[in-house]
């Protein structure tokens, strides 16, 4: 989980992490399920979306730049994932959060 927290903006994947930890893909999947009660993909997406929300709240970067900084190559794919997680489009989230409004996240 620490590797994902530190390397979420890269093309990190389960096989690479398993190899780095001298583990198998399946063992790592089991560990995510048992310890984290999640999957690798869900954990990675959640970390990316949380970091994106922080960046958008500051309002210094365009949505496309935020998408790239959190590991998405395509802004449209990022926007769809962000909307699914937070319930708002990235640009709208940034505007609301900069106004000081509390934005509820969809979990």
Task: Provide the descriptors you would attach to this structure in a database record.
Arc Repressor Mutant, subunit A, mainly alpha, 107 residues
Report the span from N to C terminus: 19 Å
- How many domains comprise the coordinates? 1
**Mean pLDDT metric:** 89
| Helix/strand/pairing category | mainly alpha
General shape: elongated
Architecture overview:
The chain has 107 residues and is mainly alpha-helical. The chain has one domain (2-98): Homeodomain-like (Arc Repressor Mutant, subunit A, Orthogonal Bundle). It is built from 7 helices and no strands. It has helices spanning 2-7, 14-20, 25-36, 40-58, 63-69, 75-86, 90-98. The mean pLDDT is 89.
Short description, anyone?
With 107 residues, the chain is an all-alpha fold. The chain has helices at 2-7, 14-20, 25-36, 40-58, 63-69, 75-86, 90-98.
What's the helix and strand layout?
Layout: H1 2-7, H2 14-20, H3 25-36, H4 40-58, H5 63-69, H6 75-86, H7 90-98
Helix pairs in contact: 2-3, 4-6, 4-7
């Amino acid at each position: 989980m620490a590797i994902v927290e530190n390397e979420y903006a890269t093309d990190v994947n389960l096989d690479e992490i398993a190899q780095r930890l001298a583990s198998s893909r399946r063992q790592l999947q089991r560990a995510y399920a048992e310890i984290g009660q999640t999957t690798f993909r869900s954990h990675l997406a959640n970390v990316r979306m949380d970091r994106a929300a922080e960046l958008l709240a500051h309002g210094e970067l365009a949505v496309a730049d935020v998408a790239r900084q959190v590991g998405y190559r395509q802004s449209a794919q990022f926007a769809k994932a962000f909307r699914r997680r937070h319930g708002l489009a990235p640009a709208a989230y940034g505007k609301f959060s900069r106004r000081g409004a509390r934005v509820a996240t969809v979990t």
